[in-house]
Amino acid sequence: MMNYLFTEEQQMIKELCRQIAVEKIKPVAAEYDEKEMFPWDIVKVLADADIFGIYIDQKYGGMGGGILEMAIATEELSWGCGGIALAFAATGLGTFPIILFGNEAQKEKYLSMVAKGTVAAFCLTEAEAGSDAGGIKTTAIKDGDHYILNGTKQWITNGGEADIYTVVAMTNKSKGARGASAFIVEKGTPGLSFSKKEKKLGIRGSSTTEVIFEDCKIHKDQLLDKEGMGFIVAMKTFDNSRPGVAAQAVGIAQRAVDEALAYTHTRHQFGKPVSSFQGVQFMLADMATQVEAARGLVYNAAKMVDAGEKDIAGVSAMCKLFASDVAMKVTTDAVQLFGGYGYMREYPVEKLMRDAKITQIYEGTNQIQRSVIAANMIKSLAKSK
Ligand SMILES: Cc1cc2nc3c(=O)[nH]c(=O)nc-3n(C[C@H](O)[C@H](O)[C@H](O)COP(=O)(O)OP(=O)(O)OC[C@H]3O[C@@H](n4cnc5c(N)ncnc54)[C@H](O)[C@@H]3O)c2cc1C
After folding, report:
1. 273 lines ligand 1 (CB under 6 A)
2. What is the pLDDT of residue 28?
3. pTM for the whole thing?
4. Is residue 3 part of a domain?
5. Which of 359, 362, 372 to mutate to test the pocket of ligand 1 (most atoms within 8 A of CB)?
6. DSSP labels, 109-137
7. Which domain does 89 fall in, by range?
8. N or C terminus: which one in the chain shows less Cβ crowding within 10 Å?
């Protein structure tokens, strides 16, 4: 494997997360998938190992790492199970609005909770507002020192299980995109409820629900930054979180390569291991090369975010786009290399293929990533003139 010249701490995170993936996650992944259970026991393992605090400032009880450290952890945990790893990764998505836009009191309270293992969620999507997030209808109407939230968010990862929800809602519809604001809502707030869990193709160890606001009253201190910043909070959050989705895709894809290599080495046909056939070897070589290329892109995008580079939207979208397409291709090839056994749920690779698919869809579909990349290319061209 490529050497990414990690620091001692990054190497330690990688080894610890791989160990948890091998010893704790891999053995239960099929059961969580089958039973569609939220992995509370694994959340506890991760919390006890201080994994939730990896990207949280030391001031709030975290390890003080950044997006690269988060990506390393997400990749390794996703190697164990892409669904179970989401309890950690989507907590990052729910937490970035607070890291990026929270005031000191909000950070002190909520980042300390996350560092200890509190699960968070991010609520933007609605039934009629997916790619076009500007179409959200959930409202947050000012009422003295409070805001009253009404509306329904759809397909929220960690829905119902998380204690912290960061929510984008319209505070002033007449202002269009500048009329949205972001809030922190705690589980247990009257007027906040959840639908039953969605039944999904993959990542079935992850909870996906509606998050429903019915006259849900929150104090104005729960507003992130200022009114009108809702979509900026969302877009900057995605710039930071997309390397995490990409890392999830790399982890799933690497597992597919590992499983395919091990299987083709032991499976004999025509009196030889199938890995001795050039047609199989070329597939394995392409799979491994694509995963390594995706990994390099993810780590480099993560490093750029951590270095505080300004124009990260394009590279962040690129790594999510490329890694998720690689994950879909490589997991499909792994099923192919297992032959008929690959199609059976008794073997691990059909689950990898099902889990990989979501990485092309959420946090912006890959069509939307391409639009982001092209928009940034065109912007750079205009700037250079
Ligand atoms: C399992 C799961 C978990 C999720 N978790 C969360 C979460 O935690 N928080 C959250 O807020 N959301 C979450 N989502 C929502 C997710 O981000 C959206 O599903 C996604 O952004 C796409 O929106 P949509 O499903 O409405 O598709 P649509 O926007 O309706 O798109 C339909 C198709 O049209 C294409 N399309 C749309 N517009 C364009 C365009 N301008 N150019 C080219 N093609 C276009 C899309 O790429 C897609 O192929 C989750 C979704 C799923 C399935």
Report:
1. no
2. 98
3. 0.98
4. no
5. 362
6. IIIHHHHTT--EEEE--BTTBSS-GGG--
7. 8-119
8. C
